[in-house]
Amino acid sequence: MNWGRRCYSPWKCLRGGEPNPYHFLLAEVLRRGGFVFTTNVDALIEEACRRIGLILGRDFNICFGKSEDEDFKGYVTRIEAGERLKSCIFKLHGSIDAGAPEHKYESIQFALRQVGKGLFEPRQKVLKYFHQNFDFWFLGYSCRDDFSVFPAFWTAPP
């Protein structure tokens, strides 16, 4: 029996949906040159961006752990080089990829394999850099995870 497609049926709830006022608030943060970190894997922030006229690649970028975290590694390289950073959504637990249907869940699977081990190093480095160098605003985050985001904050110097 092939369980592959049946195992992914709970993820269907993450496709589609309507952005709420918080998604539009975060899209406005990106429009103004800010950065957004999220553990959500849906594409509602991206949809809110599209609806207010922002274009992916031109107005903002997304890092979600594509190709063994190459996007986060590239961002670390830009930080270390002192480059001017474009607005970005950092999806710490992966994302529903807009690519081919058979690859939609790869970055989420990649992130789930890491549960219990903490965030991958490139994700930690990006998160710590922004936490240490910018004002950070938490919206809907309880800091109650002992395995992912919170430990990165806990180990960051004051």
Topology:
Layout: H1 4-7, H2 21-31, E1 35-38, H3 44-51, E2 61-63, H4 66-80, E3 88-91, H5 106-112, H6 121-133, H7 149-154
Parallel strand pairs: 1-3, 2-3
Helix pairs in contact: 2-3, 4-6
Can you tell me about this structure?
The chain is mainly alpha-helical. It has one domain (15-154). The protein has 7 helices and 3 strands. It has helices spanning 4-7, 21-31, 44-51, 66-80, 106-112, 121-133, 149-154; strands spanning 35-38, 61-63, 88-91. It has a 3-stranded parallel beta sheet. α4 (66-80) links the parallel β2 and β3 (88-91). α2 (21-31) packs across α3 (44-51) and α4 (66-80) packs parallel to α6. The longest helix is centred in the middle third of the chain and has 15 residues, at 66-80. The chain is globular and about 35 Å long. It starts with a helix and ends with a helix. The model has no long low-confidence stretch (mean pLDDT 82).
Note the main attributes of this structure.
158 residues, mainly alpha, 3-stranded parallel sheet, 7 helices
Structure summary:
By secondary structure, the chain is mostly helical.
CA gyration radius, whole angstroms: 16 Å
| Largest sheet: number of strands, sense, barrel closure | 3 strands, parallel
Number of helices: 7
Identify low-pLDDT runs: none
Briefly note the structural class of the backbone: mainly alpha
Shape: globular
How many domain units? Answer: 1
Mean model confidence by pLDDT: 82
Distance between the termini: 53 Å
Order of helices and strands: HHEHEHEHHH
Strand content: 5-15%
Share of helix, binned: 40-55%
The strand count comes to 3
Strand order of the largest sheet: 1-3-2
